[in-house]
Structure formats: C-alpha cells, structure tokens
Amino acid sequence: MSDEEHQFESKADAGASKTYPQQAGTIRKNGYIVIKNRPCKVVEVSTSKTGKHGHAKCHFVAIDIFNGKKLEDIVPSSHNCDVPHVNRVDYQLIDISEDGFITKSTVPANWLSNVSKLFFHLDCQIKDGFGEGKDLVVSVMAAMGEEQICALKDVGPK
C-alpha cells in the first residue's frame, strides 16, 4: 500500500433528474408534461379508441409554465412521456436590483441561484410594493433548470 492521497473531483450533480417517466394514459388535466423540451401544464387531454393496428392515442393540449405558449402532442397511451419535476416555493423579498432581478431569502440547496428575473405581469406590483416599504413574499416556480416568479403576497408593512 502506498501513502499517496487520492482526490476525486466530481463535476456531476447528485444524479437528480429534471424529469421522470410516466405512462401517457395516466397523465390528467392540470398535471404536468414535457412537450418539445418545455415544461407544460396540461389543460386538455383526449384519448382516441384503439385502432385496428395500433394503440389508443392521447392528445395533449398544454401551456408552457414559463412563457404561456400553447403546445400540443399526440402519444400512444401505453408509451411513457417525460414529466418535469416542478417545485413552487415562497420566499421573502429582500431587495430588487436596477436590472430587474430580485434577491430572495434563504435559498434551498437545490435551487440554481438566489436571484430570479421578475415575471413581467408582476413587475409593477413587486416594484411598487417594495418601494412603498411593504413586506412581500414571492412564489417562485422552478422546473427543468428554469425558475420564475409566479405569484406575489403582501404580508404587511416592514
């Protein structure tokens, strides 16, 4: 045996996946699905009957959870679809930078960073409330390496 020290450098994550497989026939309205490599919320599902030479097909209509675009996909009901891991966490708003980024309170270890780009619909409400000295809580949704503010709560004056 030698007295050498061995160091291992890991550049990979802990093996956590951005998606998981789920059988198409079990995905329901208000669930999540990945369509064209985008995380989406399902707004409509219809299933065709089994044809003479094939599987029943599921037709998904879904909305991208980050940009609001409508996407559609048709998948055999017995095949697997990718479903994104979607997390929604509330944070206390600490500060807003001039370029539209916010700093939020304690960040869980699995989150990408401690800043999120202001969601355009909430931009004015967040800036105005923060400017008035209100104590604000932002809800941040994260999926597939993206995160975005999706809701705002006013918990009173600071």
Question: What is the CATH class designation of the largest domain?
Answer: Mainly Beta
Calculate Rg over CA atoms. 21 Å
Q: Count all strands and give the number.
A: 11
Look at the structure and name the CATH superfamily of the largest domain: Nucleic acid-binding proteins
Please tell me the CATH architecture of the largest domain by its name. Answer: Beta Barrel
Secondary-structure content class: mainly beta
**What is the share of helical residues?**
under 10%
Largest sheet: 5 strands, antiparallel
> Per the principal axes of the C-alpha atoms, what is the gross shape?
elongated
Summed up, the helix count is 1
What does this protein structure show overall?
With 158 residues, the chain is mainly β. The protein contains one helix and eleven strands; from the N terminus they run βββββββββαββ. About 12% of the residues have low confidence. It folds into two domains: 66 residues, SH3 type barrels (Roll); 72 residues, Nucleic acid-binding proteins (OB fold (Dihydrolipoamide Acetyltransferase, E2P), Beta Barrel), CATH 2.40.50. Strands 9-8-7-10-11 form a five-stranded antiparallel β-sheet, with helices on one face. The longest helix has 9 residues. InterPro entries: IF5A-like (IPR001884), IF5A-like_N (IPR048670), IF5A_C (IPR020189), NA-bd_OB-fold (IPR012340), Rib_uL2_dom2 (IPR014722), Trans_elong_IF5A_hypusine_site (IPR019769), Translation_prot_SH3-like_sf (IPR008991).
